[in-house]
TrEMBL record:
GO MF entries: phosphorelay sensor kinase activity
Domain Histidine kinase: 252-463
TM segment ranges: 6-25, 37-55, 61-80, 92-109, 121-140, 152-173, 185-210
Keyword Transcription: no
Top-rank taxon: Bacteria
InterPro entries: HATPase_C_sf, HATPase_dom, His_kinase_dom, HisK_dim/P_dom, HisK_dim/P_sf, Sig_transdc_His_kin-like_C
EC number(s) recorded for this UniProt protein: 2.7.13.3
Species this chain originates from: Limnohabitans planktonicus II-D5
Protein name, entry field: histidine kinase
Lineage summary: Bacteria, Pseudomonadati, Pseudomonadota, Betaproteobacteria, Burkholderiales
């Protein structure tokens, strides 16, 4: 055979010393226990290969028991690294105990039994088992993260482990001599795989981290996009809420003012007739002005009412489950801050309705806000939100464990501008009710039998 085994061991050893340093430096921004154990393991493994390659120059104890224990430690540290990456950490005491037992048994075969064959089989057999375990852990990372780099690490250590296992087997069957520097095809293949594993193993390991970094960056971008979307939706809802509030105020003002204005007009008309009958022309002119201006005011109010009533909404197929999820995302921080326990009961199959998703979100936002506020002051704050379908109807109910509604509140609760809160506008429920009606459904609020209030939204369901 043409290759000089000690030199090949030295090359593999040096590679094992240098490559982990490269890994260490490249991954300096993401240092973790996994990287520390992996790199230290690599360096110790490299030292052991250099010792094995220097068998002709160095004393026997250094190139046998020390070199083999280092070999064990190097692979075991890498096993610990990958177990850590998989969330199955192993305490370093096991490593220490394992190394001591390994070295004692190794020396027992040599010093007590004087059996070099058993000593070799023990050393290479245990190392092969560890290498195969290492490959299995790398495969587990590949399965979990779908990582091609982990697959490479697994493949190279699987090959190395299998060849070392075969070499132990061959020695066990007396088909070859024991010894790390035995000039046979399996030893050469092993050293070749040692060199390859130094390169592929370390680059693959680095790849696992870089792939994870790329994935995390992608996930971060997606989370940011989701966040921006929910901020946009909440702005949209808030704006719609304001616009609707202003609309409701204007509609109510228009309604309330048109009656007294009509009265003023009629009174002015009557006074005009009386004054004309009495022949006081100068006053009649002013009364005519009052009539005209009052009529103008009534016309303006009517135009405002018409404008408010003719607002277009965008109807589409909407999943009530999705509306609930969106609002839960939006209110999540608030719910956490207020320490309210929300139980969601959403059917596995989405309940679909025809409607304007933003308006439906607005209903949910209003009633969620009321429910959260209603539970203030309770030791345990709880909201139960459920959706279900019954025949052609979609149901959504929110029940809270607040104080519920007194009969007086219940009598006026859905009237515009009725509020029992110091900072309440009193339009949330009436807006929600008018949206529900606009969607061909209904919204009711009542006291739940278990206590607290229950808001029940019913809408026509889609197939
Ligand atoms: P606001 O929240 O601005 O007061 P709403 O129209 O949403 O306006 O609610 C009107 C009133 O209905 C509230 O002030 C409150 O008295 C009562 N209310 C609404 N929801 C609840 C609830 N879940 N529990 C008890 N009272 C409620």
């Amino acid at each position: 055979m043409s290759i000089h085994l000690p030199t090949a061991y030295l090359i593999a050893g040096l590679l094992y010393l240098v490559m982990p340093l490269g890994v260490w430096l490249s991954l300096r921004r993401q240092r973790s226990a996994t990287i520390h154990w992996w790199c230290i393991g690599g360096v110790i493994f490299g030292l052991s290969l250099i010792l094995l390659g220097s068998r002709e120059q160095l004393p026997d104890w250094l190139t046998h028991v020390v070199a083999n224990t280092f070999l064990f430690l190097g692979v075991a540290l890498r096993v610990i690294a990958l177990r850590h990456a998989l969330g199955r950490p192993l305490h370093w005491v096991w490593l220490l105990a394992g190394a001591v037992i390994f070295a004692l048994v190794y020396e027992f075969f040599h010093g007590v039994l004087h059996n070099e064959q058993l000593r070799f089989i023990w050393g290479s057999g245990i190392t092969a088992a560890l290498l195969l375990h290492l490959a299995w852990l790398a495969f587990a990372i590949d399965r979990r993260d779908n990582s091609p780099s982990a697959r490479w690490v697994a493949a190279v250590y699987l090959a190395l482990g299998l060849v070392l296992a075969m070499r132990s087997m061959v020695v066990l069957l007396n088909m070859s001599q024991a010894g790390a520097l035995n000039d046979d095809i399996l030893t050469m293949l092993m050293v070749f795989l040692g060199v390859l594993s130094a390169i592929v193993g370390n680059i693959g390991f680095m790849g696992v981290f870089l792939e994870r970094l790329t994935r995390q960056t992608g996930q971060l971008a997606m989370a940011q996009a989701r966040n921006e979307e929910s901020v946009r939706l909440s702005h949209q809802i808030a704006q719609l809420d304001r616009r609707r509030s202003v609309g409701e105020i204007a509609a109510s003002l228009a309604h309330e003012l048109s009656q007294p204005l009509t009265n003023i007009y009629l009174i002015a008309e009557r006074a005009h007739l009386e004054v004309e009958k009495a022949g006081v022309q100068s006053v009649g002119k002013y009364l005519g002005d009052i009539e005209r201006n009052t009529q103008n005011a009534v016309d303006i109010l009517n135009r405002i009412r018409k404008f408010i009533q003719s607002k277009e909404s965008q109807f589409e197929r909407v999943s009530l489950n999705q509306v609930v999820k969106d609002i839960m995302d939006l209110t999540n921080d608030w719910i956490l801050k207020e320490a309210v326990d929300v139980s969601l009961h959403l059917p596995a199959q989405a309940v679909w309705v025809m409607g304007d998703p933003v308006q439906l979100s607005q209903i949910l936002m209003n009633i969620c806000r009321n429910a959260i506020q209603a539970t203030q002051g309770q030791a345990y704050r709880h909201i139960d939100l459920r959706i279900w379908r019954e025949g052609n109807l979609a149901h959504l109910s929110i029940r809270d464990n607040g104080m519920g509604l007194t009969p007086e509140v219940l009598a006026q609760v859905s009237t515009a501008f009725f509020s029992t809160k110091s900072d309440g506008l009193g339009v949330g429920l009436s807006i929600s009710k008018s949206i529900a009606t606009h969607h061909g459904g209904s919204l009711t609020i009542s006291n739940a039998p278990q206590g607290g209030a229950e808001v029940h939204l019913i809408l026509p369901a889609l197939a």
